[in-house]
Specification:
Length: 370
């Protein structure tokens, strides 16, 4: 894997050189992990003018702390002594020592105080904005990354499938969410990819609903959204069910509508497809049925080392999909006071010759009465 991380740093170094910056300071933890294999607490990465100048700087205060990931064994590391100050400032001084006159930094991650400390640490070093260069590199995944996402999806499917076999009536949203997260770990996840959402009755269908002490009742819609974190890679699955009895007519109608929208979104995933066209494919079905105001604000998003990455599949998003980009497709409708439906899958964009979109989350999307 060392060569994989080295190649990623080379691509970043080439981008920096093209912009006139001899070095880059990467401070955002997910980006540090992408470029090094791990993200020790408080660590920053200096990508120097040449491969031998790449250094991971770690604060002494993090000695003995659990490591997030497995670090590139070839990468040079520097541990700051106690009282050694901010690793980012130390990285700026090191860049100056390498002869760099320009340092690209992740301004979207730096506080104003930290930005000032860099200026003070290395007077004369020109600071430029690295912007989201690393995030852009992360959009297209290699097959090892996709394999981790595939396992994460299998774990989430297992946890959800087991829950569906248990008695649900009378249990609270909060209790069900905690049980799901425990089952994720039992099946090999490092943890939940994000706070698990369990929504019942009038809460169902809400995006990002935080579980409450409301108890599951007969006739409720139950919408669940969960994901597993496996070796740092995060997937997402969402399903909606009916509790206890045969679905009411309005529940069947709403479910079939959201299912049709979700299928349209999935089928539109292809290399070269516009982000907003994927959103439009799903959204126009909901809009035509009169649910424009009740629909979720975006149809999906990228996943990877973070649960919400680029690309964003929304009405105003600009850009086109590439092959090997994992995304969610998650349309939903929430009717205030009644509830709603969300259906959410994680897929990988593939060429038509390779079978089209690869579905990672395979739990049934049939409207089940549990």
């Amino acid at each position: 894997m060392s060569q994989v991380y080295a190649d990623r740093r080379i691509r970043l170094r080439d981008r920096c050189a093209a912009a006139g910056n001899a070095a880059a300071l990467v401070s955002r933890p997910a980006n540090v992990r992408y470029l090094t294999g791990g993200a020790p607490p408080g660590a920053v990465l200096l990508v120097g003018p040449e491969p031998g100048a790449d250094v991971l700087l770690r604060p002494a205060s993090a000695e003995g702390a659990p490591l997030d990931g497995r670090l590139d064994e070839v990468l040079r590391q520097q541990r700051l002594p106690l009282g050694g100050g901010d690793p980012a400032a130390a990285a700026a001084r090191l860049a100056r020592g390498f002869g760099a006159d320009g340092l690209a930094v992740e301004e979207h991650d730096l506080t104003v105080a930290r930005h000032r400390s860099l200026t003070s640490a290395a007077p004369g070093l020109r600071l430029a904005d690295l912007s989201c260069a690393v995030e852009q590199l992360r959009v297209v995944k290699d097959e090892d990354e996709i394999a981790c996402l595939r396992i994460a999806a299998e774990i989430a499917d297992q946890a959800l499938g087991e829950l569906l076999e248990s008695i649900l009536v009378g249990r609270t949203e909060r209790h069900l969410a905690l049980e799901l997260e425990r089952r994720l770990v039992d099946h090999g996840a490092d943890g939940a990819a994000f706070p698990t959402s369990v929504a019942t009755g009038p809460h169902s269908g809400r995006r990002g609903h935080r579980p409450t002490d409301r108890r599951v009742e007969e006739g409720d819609f139950l919408s669940v959204c969960l994901g597993a974190d496996y070796r740092g890679y995060r997937c997402e699955i969402g399903r909606t069910f009916v509790i206890g009895t045969a679905p009411a007519d309005w529940q069947i109608e709403l479910y079939e509508l959201v299912f049709a929208a979700q299928r349209a979104g999935r089928e539109s995933l292809a290399p070269g497809a516009e982000y907003r066209d994927v959103d439009r494919a799903a959204r126009q079905i909901l809009d035509a049925a009169g649910h424009a105001a009740a629909a979720v604000p975006l149809t999906g998003h990228g996943v990877g080392l973070e649960i919400d990455e680029d690309p964003q599949l929304s009405p105003s998003a600009m850009g086109k999909l590439d092959a090997c980009v994992p995304v969610t497709v998650e349309p939903g409708v929430h009717l205030p006071g009644r509830g709603g439906v969300r259906i959410d899958d994680t897929l990988v964009v593939r060429q038509e010759a390779d079978g089209g979109p690869e579905l990672l989350t395979i739990t049934t999307k049939e409207l089940l009465a549990l």
